[in-house]
Write a structure and sequence with these properties.
Low-confidence stretches: 1-18, 621-631
Radius of gyration: 28 Å
Strand content: 5-15%
Shape: elongated
Number of domains: 2
Number of strands: 10
Number of helices: 24
Mean pLDDT: 89
Distance between the termini: 43 Å
């Protein structure tokens, strides 16, 4: 350990070195860490990118981290500390806030005289934080510590505090973490009792009311589909990557949550290696649970690019994807935060498209949602139907919702945020199993817009009914909980969203949940043509029967037409013959809804994980076709 009161104290307390300010590049050339040619190349890169010279050099493997920070310490006239040199001060970390320390790249080490020594991995930004730090802990002096050392020291020191912050990042009033206990049982019991009593005293009227609600929900969905087909623009044309350049590119962090991904982790690294974005501006974080030995071992056997790193998340009260992302967020370096899933295969120019669209969008555009589709769309009847479903959602329904100004429920992947907007709303709700949809609503309530990104990521469709039902039950459970959380105070929600977006919220969540839940009521009408008993057999005659039958037929025809149009837009025309199978596909959602209802009562925060890596893309990424980052 170093003695902080030893002779280096004077240099620690100086705010600026004396004499001529030596440039970092000159110091690195002088000590032989880089060549003059490398420096010239790096300086050219820096002029076009929003990053430091050090990031350019280390990200392109031109200088080691230790050599860089040795030169930075010399340039700033500060001491250089390694993780093994000093023990940080837990009380001072707590006074500043462990999450702020992680975000700013600072670590209070201890006191030397009346001054607190604060190590930083970002010495170029230290002065901008000095006033805030001195208000919290008194006079400070800067020391320098390599980023990896600082991060490991901080996480070792306050890992449980960081984990706790990840679980409670969202305000209590906006979170579902208090959901559960007796309340869901009381609500479910009340609804069940009301149904039993209504059917006991007025069975025909009760069944007719449920049927009317079910038909009404289908009609609402059909109206949305009709509008979506009417306003649909021609399929987007491919844009050449060289038209997507900007004057200066920002740094982008990509979070990739992984859990028990033995099959997919190594393949994922290859797929992300094709991203055509400067290495010094790309910060890919493979976010894994600390206890997940399978995934950690798989990653350890892989050679990660310099711009890719693993973040291990300590154990906590829950184990969910949003909790892991909250933990990783404070360690991200980018101004733009993106999310990919383990099985994703994004196009090479997707990040360029993201930064270009953010650059030309107003400040209130806090999020971009990309399109999703599947690379195993023709493997089974289920993957074909899933492709029809996704194509309709991403090419028709989401654009219609965007045009209507409704809040957009985000997907869990290929979604990108301005970091400032994401942090403003508190990140993700760690307890919500559809954290993406909930986050979309909170962004809308805080006045942010979500726009659609003209770029498609291919991923893996679930191949078996059991896996599909498990995945869909998690989505439906999350939708139900999200609706309940935001409807805690309907008046506040109406004020936040306004009448039009409030209506969109109800259509998105309530109408969809009711449609899936009440589908068996409509299925029962198949009993009538078979001559079997039915509660409405004596009243379902004449005009009411004709109107109902015609309405259901028209609604089905609209859905059929929307599916075909969506497939053509997504270049999946060969799947059109399988559209009739959607009448087999959709009923599985009702089975998933039953599972979701049970889990809402018993385990609302349970994350039913989808297994990835069953199939490979039809054009898997190889090292030969991966595009280099240094160009």
């Amino acid at each position: 350990m170093l003695d902080l009161t030893a002779p280096q104290e004077h240099s620690l307390r100086r705010r600026h070195p004396t004499g001529r300010k030596t440039r970092l590049g000159e110091l690195l050339v002088e000590d032989g860490s880089i060549t003059a040619r490398d420096l010239e190349w790096a300086l050219r890169r820096q002029r076009h990118h929003i990053c430091t010279l050090g990031h350019v050099l280390t990200s392109n493997d031109l200088v080691s981290e230790h050599a860089l920070y040795r030169a930075l310490a010399k340039q700033k006239g500060a001491a250089l500390f390694r993780a093994t040199d000093v023990a940080a001060s837990p009380p001072l970390v707590d006074r500043i806030g462990v999450d702020r320390c992680a975000r700013l790249g600072i670590l209070p080490i201890g006191r030397a005289g009346g001054t607190t020594i604060v190590a930083t991995s970002q010495p170029f930004a230290f002065e901008s934080h000095r006033d805030d730090l001195e208000r919290l802990i008194g006079p400070v002096a800067m020391a320098v510590m390599p980023e990896s050392d600082l991060r490991s020291t901080l996480t070792s020191l306050r890992r449980h505090s960081l984990a706790g912050h990840a679980e409670t990042r969202v305000d209590l009033s906006d979170s579902c973490r208090t959901f559960g206990g007796r309340t869901p049982w009381i609500v479910a019991g009340g609804i069940g009792l009301a149904l039993v009593l209504s059917f006991a005293f007025a069975p025909v009227a009760s069944f007719a009311a449920l049927a009317a609600i079910a038909v009404s929900m289908l009609l609402v969905n059909a109206i949305v589909l009709l509008y979506a087909m009417q306003i649909a623009k021609p399929p987007p044309q491919d844009i050449a990557a060289d038209t997507l350049s900007l004057a200066r590119l920002p740094r982008v962090s990509i979070l990739v949550p992984l859990y028990r991904e033995k099959e997919i982790a190594a393949k994922l690294i290859k797929r992300l290696s094709v991203l055509d974005y400067p290495a010094e501006l790309l910060d890919v974080c493979l976010v894994v649970e600390e206890s997940d030995a399978v995934t950690r071992a798989t990653i350890a056997r892989s050679t990660l690019p310099i711009w890719m790193r693993m973040i291990a998340v300590p154990e906590g009260a829950v184990r969910t994807k949003p909790r892991a992302m909250n933990y990783a967020l404070d360690f991200c370096m980018g101004d733009v935060i993106g999310i990919y899933d383990a099985e994703d295969e994004p196009p090479a120019d997707q990040i360029l498209r993201v930064v270009r669209q953010f650059a030309r969008s107003p400040a209130e555009t806090g999020c971009l949602q990309g399109r999703l589709n599947f690379y195993n769309s023709t493997d089974t009847w289920l993957t074909r139907c899933f492709t029809v479903d996704y194509s309709t959602w991403f090419s028709l329904v989401l654009p219609a919702m965007h045009r209507l100004g409704w809040p957009i429920p985000l997907g869990g992947t290929t979604v990108f945020f301005r970091r400032s907007a994401l942090e403003d709303v508190g990140g993700w709700d760690a307890h919500n199993v559809t954290e993406d949809a909930d986050l979309g609503m909170r962004l809308a309530r805080r006045g942010y817009r979500t726009d659609l990104l003209d770029s498609t990521t291919r991923e893996e469709a679930t191949m078996t009914p059991g896996a599909w039902i498990s995945q869909r039950s998690r989505w439906l459970k999350g939708y139900a909980i999200t609706w309940a959380v935001h409807m805690r105070d309907p008046g506040r929600l109406l004020r936040d969203l306004g009448p039009r977006r409030f209506l969109g919220f109800q259509v998105l969540f309530l109408a969809n949940l009711l449609s899936v839940s009440l589908a068996p009521v409509l299925w029962s009408f198949w009993l009538l043509p078979l001559g079997l008993p039915h509660p409405l057999a004596h009243v379902f005659t004449g005009w009411p029967a004709i109107v109902t039958i015609v309405s259901l037929f028209a609604i089905g025809l609209i859905g059929f037409a929307a599916n075909i149009q969506a497939l053509l837009r997504e270049r999946h025309g060969k799947l059109i013959p399988f559209v009739p199978l959607m009448h087999v596909y959709y009923p599985m959602a009702t089975i998933a809804m039953a599972k979701a209802f049970w889990e809402i009562l018993r385990k609302p925060f349970f994350w039913d994980k989808t297994q990835h890596g069953v199939t490979l893309p039809d054009n898997p990424v190889t090292q030969e076709n991966a595009r280099p980052h240094r160009a």
